[in-house]
Amino acid sequence: MDDRKQGLSAYIAVTAAYWAFMLTDGALRMLVLLHFHTLGFSPIQLAYLFLLYEFMGMVTNLSAGWIAARFGLTSTLYAGLGIQIVALLALAGLDPEWGLAASVVYVMVVQGLSGVAKDLSKMSSKSAVKLLAPNTGDGLFRWVAYLTGSKNAVKGVGFLLGTVLLGTVGFIGSVIAMAAVLAAILVAIAIFMPSGLPQGRKGAKFKEVFSKERNVNLLSLARVFLFGARDVWFVVGIPIYFYAVLSDGSEAGNRMAFFQIGTFMALWIIAYGAVQAWAPGLLKAKDKTTDQIVALAVQWVGLLTLIPAALALCALVAGAPTNWLTITLVAGLMVFGFVFAVNSSVHSYLILAFTRDDRVTMDVGFYYMSNAAGRLLGTLLSGLSYQVGGLPLTLGTAALMAGLSWLATRQLHAGAPRTAPT
Questions:
Q1: 3-state percent breakdown (helix, strand, coil) of the chain, nearest 5
Q2: Alpha carbons 422 and 42: distance in angstroms, whole number
Q3: What residue ranges are annotated as transmembrane (predicted)?
Q4: Could you say which DSSP state residue 269 is in?
Q5: Residue 12: CB partners within 8 Å, gap ≥ 6?
Q6: Beta-carbon count within 10 A of 192 CB
Q7: What's the alpha-carbon Rg for the chain, to the nearest Å?
Q8: Is residue 196 within 8 Å of 10, Cβ to Cβ?
Q9: Distance between first and last Cα of the chain
Q10: How far apart are CA 138 and CA 9, in angstroms?
Q11: Phi/psi at 247 (5° precision)
Q12: pLDDT, tens digit (0-9, with 9 covering 90-100), for 240-279
């Protein structure tokens, strides 16, 4: 019992560090997107800035599970926070006199470091849930839903914080301030971190990262397309559309547009996080078997597919930015966020239900590598589709991605021996 309480304290410490990290991660995304848009970067160039971030997330997740299994979960957490501090300070060193190509490459590399940092931190906290959650009822589903939901709510606040900082203290002042705060948190966590997380095993082999479990692989494939469906509109398309609608090009107009875009993105993420945390209650998971939750996953991703398809049709009919289209987009994307959050929460439960304790860091790492692959694909297609076909193509691509996630999810078969989520 004492060991479990000690483990719970470790989980709380990891979660607190993860919240602090996600606050800066959300702020940094909006800082980079809006700052470089005002410097004249095209939609596809803006997408390039985030490509290495997502690619390095894939690489990191693939190796982070093995690193944690070999060296322990605290090592990956400390490394994630430390690398994010380095990335923030590096962004402060960006010289405005550099040419466009040099600036793009530099920011891509720094964002790549940030991608490594994020996924080291994510894998640490998600793996801790599997090891420390209650073993009865819907305990695992509730714990992972609360962690994921609260993390996204904090990231949403970070989106708003980033736009406010950009409009007040500027780009360089913002990243230096965030680096200082994160450094203080890293020191505090390192001093007060209790024991309770796995310390690693010397015999862990890298090849163990690749799962032989059919459900883990199928769920990972479904995750690729699920997050591709979100990021294809979320990363570049919608923020740039809103900027075109809201800003008159003046400094004051830009500042107001930044705040309004940041507010929408923040509210979307916060609401998304709240729904994720609520999902176990909404789905009455306590009374359902894992097979029944798999069936719900199929239904909810099918519903998700219809929403961007309908919005793409609206954008095609409108032909150009209009008030009714903007209002429809805001309402439709909030509905998308609700349905997407339920899908994401169910996925986060299923990956932990499908894996074993002795493989948790590696299966979770492989799964979130797929998550990063989906974000990479969505990020690339976000800039490309918006530049080639505008909003209708961007939203139509999101619908296609969601449909592919539905096809992969339909192939899942839980076949779990337990009678309820554990």
A1: 85, 0, 15
A2: 48
A3: 12-34, 46-69, 76-94, 100-117, 152-172, 218-244, 256-275, 296-318, 324-352, 390-408
A4: H
A5: none
A6: 10
A7: 21
A8: yes
A9: 19
A10: 21
A11: -100, 140
A12: 888 888 877 787 777 788 788 888 888 888 888 889 888 8
Residue 164 dihedral angles phi and psi, to the nearest 5°: -65, -45
Listed in sequence order, the residues at least 6 apart from 34 whose beta carbon sits closer than 8 Å to its beta carbon are: 162, 163, 166, 239, 243, 258, 261, 262
Give me the pLDDT at residue 1, please: 41
Read off the pTM.
Answer: 0.73
For residue 183, CA distances in Å to 174, 201, 389 come to: 14, 29, 43
CA dihedral 196, 201, 206, 207 (to 10 degrees): -110
Chain centroid to CA 54: 10
Whole-number Å distance between alpha carbons of 408 and 373? 15
> Residue 58 contacts by C-beta under 8 Å, 6 or more apart in sequence?
369, 372, 373, 376
pLDDT tens profile 104-118: 788 888 888 888 887
| Segments in 72-169 forming alpha helices (H) | 73-92, 100-132, 139-168
Distance between CA atoms of residues 33 and 254, nearest Å = 13
SS3 (DSSP) at 55: helix
Full DSSP string of 111-124: HHHHHHHHHHHHHH
pLDDT digits (tens, 9 = 90+) for 37-74: 777 777 777 777 777 777 887 777 777 666 666 666 67
